[in-house]
Design a protein that fits this description.
Layout (H helix, E strand, L loop, with lengths): L11 E8 L3 E6 L4 E7 L3 H13 L6 H8 L2 H13 L9 E6 L6 E6 L6 H8 L5 H20 L12 E4 L2 E4 L6 H5 L12 H4 L3 H11 L8 H6 L13 H17 L9 H9 L12 H10 L10 H12 L13 H4 L4 H12 L5 H12 L6 H15 L3 H13 L7 H13 L3 H13 L7 H13 L3 H13 L7 H13 L3 H13 L7 H13 L3 H13 L7 H13 L7 H14 L7 H13 L3 H13 L7 H14 L2 H13 L7 H13 L3 H13 L7 H13 L3 H13 L7 H13 L3 H13 L7 H13 L5 H11 L7 H12 L17 H12 L5 H13 L7 H13 L3 H13 L7 H13 L3 H13 L7 H13 L6 H12 L1
Antiparallel strand pairs: 1-2, 2-3, 3-5, 4-5, 6-7
Helix pairs in contact: 5-10, 5-13, 10-12, 12-13, 15-16, 16-18, 17-18, 18-19, 19-20, 20-21, 21-22, 22-23, 23-24, 24-25, 25-26, 26-27, 27-28, 28-29, 29-30, 30-31, 31-32, 32-33, 33-34, 34-35, 35-36, 36-37, 37-38, 38-39, 39-40, 40-41, 40-42, 41-42, 42-43, 43-44, 44-45, 45-46, 46-47, 47-48, 48-49
Organism: Glomus cerebriforme
Protein name: Protein kinase domain-containing protein
Family: Belongs to the sel-1 family.
């Protein structure tokens, strides 16, 4: 960090913690000013937090963490460079960097804000602020953000604790280290976060369903879930300028109200509400233009939000106006609530007749609560409820709990809400009993206690509350506050279902379908699914779609399946598997299930499903973009969709991403990243990835070459059914590469691969039978294997199959058939094409065909030798040392000297053939005596080194001389050295 403004830590005096130990204020002796010190998280901290957050979704190793964070020093350096470039009066100024003496943590030195952050400032000063002050505060923030966006920097985490106040002027802080926010959205401040995050998350639907089941309050451990930020971080939506604009809108509302948005609600409640379009209620007497501005800013659709220049322009205009002339909102409070005049009157009548109708009072108050009260009347309502509650009216006590829960006529207070619910419950109010159970289950306003939660839910259920009856069934099903008892679970689901609760009807269908608490009965399962679906339960509608599509619990009817899927997607309240239903609709259009095949519509539904977090749809979109199905072909977009699916942990997508990196498709070619993605997929058990990983280790691509690791991954792939890996495993056992050579195991894996139809394995198996390697010799079985290899598409075997016909190996001699196969393998149309016209030899495969024709002539030792060469070098035909050896042996047996040399070479250096220096020596000796200079050279070397024969310098000199005399000058130096040695 030599190019940074480094400040010695010893120059700071009077250090005082001001923000939970993260930020300190201090006097800078050299600078003569008070400054703020902010500690930076180390890489290890980041890793620890990230690992915890990702654990809930999938196992993440250090490789993945490094992928996101890279080198700590480099990361910090890059971000400090970003900070150093920033200079604006409404942006917190970066002064330099220091390093803590004791713990060696990096600390950034920042301009000190003498009035704290915006949250604390509003708490202390809001009552004295005028509208001109509020407009100026908003303008300060907009000015700072306008500057950041112009650089460009996306803040990504705007909230009141990141806005500092210094001498009445507002400054944006914590805008550095922002790339991290693109990957890990913080849920500590969900009210300020762009709702697109939640809209993109399929997991929200699971939580939503639970939320609706308990009327908006659930007794499962949502605090634990909230701590798992992972649920909402699917990487589908990255923060951008419009994300900052959304946060800005919420901040503007907070400046107008002096309150933290949704301050009394849990994180989950905020996420649930904001995702559904709920926003805080505008404050009375807010200037209309200002209100319109922040409402535009927090629009759900990013492209309908203004940009920062437009925001700044509106605020700048407002700041120059006389506030007495502003159009102040004095709208009727009923309209502000979204309630029409009749609804407001209905509420007043409910107050008038309070106590006479428990159900009416309860439901009407709950209905009004969704509008967050009606200001004048809600205060009166609260007063009346309080008076009645204190006089022992149980319904009023329950309603008073509602007032405290939703902040109707009084500030929200969960503890008091719980106290009044409990008092009402103890006095026998069924709704309060239910709510008390929920509060105990959630630990809201009281300590969490599942046993007590169960007790009150049971009382409410026994008093006829259908929702409580359903929840009680769930408690018995999963042992929440009681022992697991599926029979009782079924009984309560049945009671609730018969009382008309659609979700209970659906769950009852599941009980019948799975034999939980009752004997399995597909007909009744379907009957209850149908009732629930007709009553609007979208999970049941989805289930019916599956039933009709696959003929589960009813006759198969793809048209009805399609109709129910479509109905489930059109419902106001989304089902637990909404994104999955969209995926199923895409599948219907893709395959013409229940509707006409339409690849464009299939693409559109897959896209919707993917945007809602279905990772199968992400993968399918990759396929569609890769192949141009229903959309234009675009391998870059294909890669992006495959990549997002791979990040989620979908092993097939991880394999495809590896292939894309390996081949440079849609991204830069990168063998290291290809290896990394193959590894992820392979560790998830994907056979093709395990095979490719074996290839990487075998070839040293993207990693160090390692034959043992290659063998291990081929073995895993083979055991998981990958046919190519099974065949390759046979080769490794045959060659002894990465494992001890074992011809019997080689045959075993060839047989496994052949049983699965692998053409190459059939050939290798045939060769094993023909030569008796690892199995008893059987030329008939060998011939049968060659036939099957050819039938399964292995072109090269046709040459040798023709040779078998010509020479009667495993079959009767049929030279005509043999010649036909020679020509088929070479792609020639007529037989004997090369016999009389050697000029037609064009390329290697033609040469192979030519010599196979020639070998059909009796005792053609040259042709046999040439075929040995082709197999040895892999020219025009697949390299095969074993087959080369056999042809050389036949040629040598017919007296061809050069073939003897080749046999010697294979015995000395072979891989498939076991090395044998003694046999190598014998073959070289025959070839050397026959005049082969290469054999003379090798024979001399064996004599010199005593390999395969007793060391003999005289014989070594003799054969080196022979080789030199015959023109091999590269061994003259060896000869001279031995002659000198001999003289000594």
């Amino acid at each position: 960090m030599s190019d940074m403004e480094f400040i010695e830590y010893k120059n700071f005096k009077n250090i005082e913690k001001i923000d939970e130990g993260i930020v300190e204020k201090t006097d800078w002796s050299d600078g003569g000013i008070k400054v703020a010190l902010k500690k930076l998280k180390t890489y290890e901290d980041q890793e620890k937090n990230t690992l915890r957050e990702f654990e809930f979704l999938r196992n993440v190793n250090r490789l993945e963490l490094a992928y996101y964070y890279g080198n700590q020093e480099e990361f910090i350096h890059k971000e400090l460079e970003l900070l150093r470039q920033v200079s604006h009066p409404n942006v917190n100024r970066f002064l330099g960097v220091t390093k803590e003496l004791e713990y060696k943590n990096y600390i950034i030195v920042l301009q000190y804000a003498n009035q704290g952050n915006l949250k604390k400032y509003l708490e202390r000063n809001f009552s004295s602020l005028q509208w001109k002050d509020k407009i100026q505060m908003a303008l300060d923030i907009a000015s700072g953000l306008k500057y950041l966006h112009s650089i460009p920097i996306i803040h990504g985490n705007l909230h009141p604790q990141n806005i500092l106040v210094n001498d009445g002027s507002l400054m944006i802080a914590d805008f550095g280290f922002s790339k991290e926010h693109e990957l890990r959205p913080e849920l500590g401040k969900p009210a300020y976060l762009d709702p697109q995050y939640y809209i993109k998350s399929s997991e929200v639907y699971d939580l939503e369903n639970n939320f609706r089941k308990l009327g908006g309050r659930y007794y499962h451990d949502f605090d634990d879930i909230n701590h798992q930020n992972d649920i909402y971080q699917r990487l589908c939506y990255k923060r951008n300028e419009k994300s900052d604009i959304y946060s800005l809108g919420v901040l503007f509302w907070e400046i107008s109200s002096g309150k933290v948005p949704f301050s009394k609600n849990s994180n989950y409640y905020i996420i649930f509400s904001v995702r559904r379009g709920v926003r805080e209620t505008p404050i009375e007497n807010t200037p209309s233009e200002y209100q319109q501005l922040y409402e535009n800013c927090w629009n759900e659709e990013p492209n309908q939000r203004p940009n920062i220049d437009e925001v700044y322009e509106v605020l700048n205009k407002l700041s120059s106006q006389n506030f007495n002339d502003l159009d102040i909102n004095n709208n009727d409070q009923d309209d502000k609530l979204g309630m029409d005049k009749n609804e407001a009157k209905a509420f007043k009548w409910d107050l008038k007749f309070f106590g006479k109708s428990l159900v009416m009072a309860q439901y009407n108050l709950e209905y009004c609560a969704t509008g967050i009260g009606i200001n004048t009347d809600d205060i009166k309502a609260f007063e009346l409820y309080l008076k009645a509650a204190e006089n022992g009216d149980t319904a009023a006590q329950c309603s008073l709990g509602k007032c405290y829960e939703f902040g109707i006529g009084i500030d929200k207070d969960e503890v008091k809400a719980f106290e009044w619910y409990l008092k009402s419950a103890e006095n026998g109010n069924s709704y309060a009993q239910y709510n008390s159970g929920v509060y105990f289950g959630n630990g809201t306003g009281t300590d969490k206690d599942y046993v007590k939660a169960f007790k009150w839910i049971l009382k409410s259920a026994e008093n006829g509350i259908a929702t409580a009856q359903d929840v009680l069934g769930y408690c018995y099903a999963w042992g929440i506050g009681t022992d697991v008892n599926w029979e009782k679970s079924f009984e309560w689901y049945l009671i609730s279902a018969e009382n008309g609760l659609a979700i209970a009807q659906y769950e009852l269908g599941c009980c019948f379908a799975n034999g939980k608490g009752i004997n399995s009965d597909c007909a009744k399962a379907f009957e209850w699914y149908l009732k629930a679906a007709e009553n609007g339960n979208t999970d049941a509608q989805c289930r019916l779609g599956k039933c009709y599509q696959f003929g589960i619990e009813t006759d198969k009817d793809e048209v009805k399946a399609f109709e129910w899927y479509l109905k489930a997607t059109e419902a106001k309240y989304k089902c637990n598997e909404h994104a999955k239903v969209q995926y199923m609709l895409g599948s219907c259009f893709a395959n013409g299930i229940g509707t006409d095949k339409d690849e464009v519509k299939a693409f559109e539904w897959y896209l919707k499903s993917a945007e809602n977090g279905n990772w199968d749809a992400h993968f399918n979109l990759g396929v569609y973009f890769e192949n141009g199905i229903g959309t234009d072909k675009d391998v870059v977009k294909a890669f992006e969709w495959y990549f997002s699916s791979a990040l989620y942990g979908y092993e097939t997508a991880q394999y495809v991403v590896g292939c894309y990196f390996a081949n440079g498709i849609g991204t830069d070619k990168n063998d290291v990243k290809a290896f990394e993605w193959y590894l992820r997929s392979a560790e998830h058990g994907y056979p093709a990835a395990q095979y490719n990983l074996g290839n990487c280790y075998a070839a040293g691509k993207g990693t160090d070459k390692d034959d043992v690791e290659a063998f291990n991954w081929y073995l895993k792939s083979a055991e998981n059914g990958n046919v190519v890996a099974q065949s390759e495993l046979g080769n490794l056992y045959a060659l002894g590469r990465g494992v001890k050579k074992d011809q019997e195991k080689a045959v075993y894996w060839y047989q496994k691969a052949a049983e699965n139809g692998d053409a190459t394995a059939f050939y290798n198996l045939g060769e094993s039978y023909e030569l008796g390697i690892g199995v008893e010799k059987d030329e008939i079985k060998a011939f049968e294997c060659y036939i099957k290899s050819a039938e399964n598409g292995y072109l090269n075997v046709k040459f040798y199959l023709g040779y078998c016909y010509v020479n009667g190996i495993g079959t009767e001699v049929n030279k005509v058939k043999g010649f036909e196969l020679f020509n088929e393998a070479a792609g020639k149309e007529k037989n004997n094409v090369f016999i009389n016209d050697d000029t037609e030899i064009i390329d290697d495969i033609d040469k192979v065909c030519y010599w196979y024709h020639k070998v059909a002539e009796n005792d053609n030792k040259v042709a046999l030798y040439k075929l040995g060469e082709f197999y040895e070098l892999g020219q025009g035909i697949r390299e095969n040392e074993m087959r080369a050896f056999e042809f050389y042996k036949k040629s040598a047996n017919l007296g061809f000297i050069d073939a003897q040399y080749k046999l010697g070479n294979i015995y000395e250096n072979g891989i498939e053939i076991d090395t044998n220096k003694e046999k190598a020596f014998d073959c070289y000796k025959i070839a050397a005596e026959g005049g082969n200079i290469y054999a003379q050279k090798r024979l001399a070397s064996l004599y010199e080194k005593g390999e395969g024969v007793q060391k003999d310098i005289n014989n070594a000199i003799y054969w080196y001389k022979k080789a030199v005399e015959n023109g091999c000058q590269d061994v003259k130096e060896n000869l001279d050295d031995l002659l000198i040695y001999q003289k000594k």
